[in-house]
């Protein structure tokens, strides 16, 4: 059974915010890994590079298997994919 897909809340998608959100979600879900982490929307105060750095950090640490986004336009999606070195697994459009 797939685990719930945590979302990065409050529009903050900095590397530090991603790390805090993932750690909190792991505690609340009582698990050691999240299957898909979804960034709810682009963070206008954080560069795509910083967001990607945070996402790669939680993937490389084994805390997250895959990442996706929500409400990214095609340019934002492509930019994040470039910094990630791969496309996010989904772009959920509202």
Fold blueprint:
Elements: E1 7-8, H1 15-29, E2 34-39, H2 48-60, E3 64-70, H3 74-84, E4 91-92
Parallel strand pairs: 1-2, 2-3, 3-4
Descriptive notes:
This protein is 41% helix and 18% strand. It is built from three helices and four strands. The chain has helices at 15-29, 48-60, 74-84, and strands spanning 7-8, 34-39, 64-70, 91-92. Helix 1 runs parallel beside helix 2 and helix 2 packs across helix 3 (74-84).
Shape: globular
Tally of contiguous helical segments: 3
Fraction of residues in helices? 40-55%
The assigned structural class equals alpha/beta
Terminal CA distance: 25 Å
What assembly state would you assign to the polypeptide chains in this entry? single chain
Strand content is 15-25%
Element-level helix/strand string: EHEHEHE
Average of the residue pLDDT scores:
90
What is the strand tally? Answer: 4
Radius of gyration: 12 Å
Strand arrangement within the widest β-sheet reads: 1-2-3-4
Q: List low-confidence stretches.
A: none
Describe the main β-sheet briefly: 4 strands, parallel
Record keyword descriptors for this entry:
four-stranded parallel β-sheet; alpha/beta; 94 residues
């Amino acid at each position: 059974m797939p685990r719930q897909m945590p979302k990065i809340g409050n529009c903050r998608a900095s590397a530090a915010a991603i790390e805090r959100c993932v750690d909190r979600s792991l505690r609340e879900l009582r698990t050691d890994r999240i299957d898909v982490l979804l960034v709810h929307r682009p963070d206008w105060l954080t560069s795509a590079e910083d967001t990607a750095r945070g996402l790669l950090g939680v993937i490389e640490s084994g805390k997250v298997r895959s990442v996706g986004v929500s409400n990214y336009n095609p340019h934002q999606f492509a930019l994040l994919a470039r910094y990630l070195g791969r496309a996010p697994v989904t772009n959920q459009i509202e």
